[in-house]
Amino acid sequence: MFSLDRWDEIFDTIRKNKLRTFLTGLSVASGIFILVILLGVGEGMRNGIAREFEQDAANLILVYPGMTTKEYKGLNPGRRIQLKNGDYNQILLKYGDKLDHSASVYNVRNGVVTYGKESGSYSIEGTFPAYQELENVSLTSGRFLNINDLDNNEKNVVLGHRVKLDLFKDQEAVGKLIEISGINFKVVGVYSDPGGERDEARLIIPITTAQKAFGGANNIQRLYLTLTPEDNFDEAVAASAGFTQALKDLLKSRHVVAPDDDSAIRVNNYLDNAKRFYTLMDMIRLFFWGVGICTIIAGVVGVSNIMLIIVKERTREIGIRKALGAQPLSIIGMILHESIFVTAIAGFAGLIMGLILLEFAGPAIETQYIYNPTVNFTVAINTVFILIIAGAIAGFFPAWRAASIKPIIALRDE
């Protein structure tokens, strides 16, 4: 029940001990402030990791060849594995019903690209239409490759945004002819990539054209695969892990590689990597919560000590109250009221300062692994409950001590 007299007592105590109250509140405010900042940084790290995985399909499985390190079936180690069109076709034949998107890539490095007086050296990727979804690229003009480009070995090309700026500046690129190592190609589209300029400094052409025009025969450098979606994340990770192992076994068998030689056929499972990263992030966030809570506990201990001092100073007053008939619960309520009030005000101040700092400074923080650090509404509500609980804990033991004082002993106190 609201009591104006009790509030007058609280404010009178605060006025008489301004510095002591300020320092006590500062310890609580700093604890909440540190907790909010740590949680914001943790969320920013999570956002940064998520943005890294957005650069390609989230459930991408990337396959690329390496070199054997073990002798197997009479073949010496040190053989360089070369993937072929047949490998890709066999995967489609055996696992096509499990795949959502797939593409093989034949890469031409440092191809000389010329338009008018402008020229440069770029990477040329010969691939399939599904490469657009697999690399998560978006078109800024024109179109992407289609099946007709592959079937007819069309000399069509899709430019990365960086290449378009280098060669065409502000001009329209779609419909123009460029030279790639002396061969004319028609620009049919321009794309942007969330990976940034490095991934936009490429040209994409049909794989059939790349293999014939640049001496690729039936060689490929990489395979991009994604599985059909599952109902939940854990099921998707399990399905992806099982498929990855089956894929390794198939390719090792085709290229006569020892089953335990993991250097010959390398598979990068993005979904498995994502699970490891997010598990790590959850552990980091738990650590941040632990640090923040420990900091708040230090502040709560400070509040509790101050309340013990206040009880000691008001021992005679408490004795008089009890002698006049004050019940123990009213004494406990008086001390708890003051403790919760000081803790809550200081805690809210720290909470607001932390949120303001994240609101204004957060958007400006953009590193590789920290992006837009924020604290959501649920976390803010949780900190409010922490404040209330902390204030109650800080005041309970001093309040219990005050309620336990016998009036006769309290009245003798000097």
From TrEMBL:
Domain ABC3 transporter permease C-terminal: 291-407
Organism: Christiangramia fulva
One term of GO molecular function: transmembrane transporter activity
Keyword Nucleotide-binding included in the entry's annotation: yes
Protein origin, superkingdom: Bacteria
Compartments (UniProt record): Cell membrane
Membrane topology, record value: Multi-pass membrane protein
Membrane-crossing segments per the record: 21-41, 286-311, 331-357, 377-397
Cleavable signal peptide: none
GO cellular component: plasma membrane
Keyword Ligase: no
Protein name: ABC transporter ATP-binding protein
Domain MacB-like periplasmic core: start-end pairs: 21-239
Stored Pfam families: FtsX, MacB_PCD
InterPro entries referenced in this protein's UniProt entry, alphabetically: ABC3_permease_C, MacB_PCD, Macrolide_Exporter_MacB
